[in-house]
Design a protein that fits this description.
Strand content: 5-15%
Distance between the termini: 42 Å
Strand order of the largest sheet: 1-2
Shape: globular
Number of helices: 6
Radius of gyration: 19 Å
Number of strands: 2
Order of helices and strands: HHEEHHHH
Length: about 140
């Protein structure tokens, strides 16, 4: 991973907020500054893209629709279909049991963070391909 550009930021925070940040960072085994940066980054993204939230999991944190799938899953589905343009919105909404508005929220987020979402799609596709290859080897061994 490429080195990140960083800047120092000084702020006065409420003592209770800093106490909670310290507790969360200790529980997560994460540096307080990195955790605060994550909170600010995710918070500003959610403000800029209402309907998007962030979920943690074994593969890290990822953007998702509130009450819906991860953005990478939705975009993978949309891009994998034959429909394009407005038809792609409707087809994806129907396939994933979402509203057109929800799909548009994810598409807008994707437009702002294309590289991040494409990287997640690539990693998940590679993982799925490897899992299928392993299953095929197991099936061959059982034949």
């Amino acid at each position: 991973m490429a080195a990140r550009d960083t800047q120092t930021f000084s702020a006065r925070w409420d003592t209770d907020v800093l106490d909670r940040l310290k507790q969360r960072s200790e529980a997560a085994g994460t540096n307080k500054s990195r955790l605060a940066e994550r909170y600010v980054d995710e918070g500003t993204r959610m403000d800029e893209h209402p309907g998007i939230l962030f979920r943690g999991g074994p593969t890290g944190r990822r953007a998702a629709l509130a009450g819906g799938p991860d953005v990478w899953e939705l975009m993978f589905t949309l891009k994998s279909g034959k429909a394009r343009g407005e038809e792609a919105i409707s087809a994806t909404a129907e396939l994933l049991n979402l509203t057109d508005s929800q799909v548009r929220i994810a598409v807008r987020y994707y437009g702002a963070f294309t590289d991040e979402i494409d990287r997640r799609i690539t990693l998940n596709t590679a993982d799925a391909d490897e899992a299928e290859a392993a299953w095929q080897r197991e099936q061959a061994a059982l034949a």
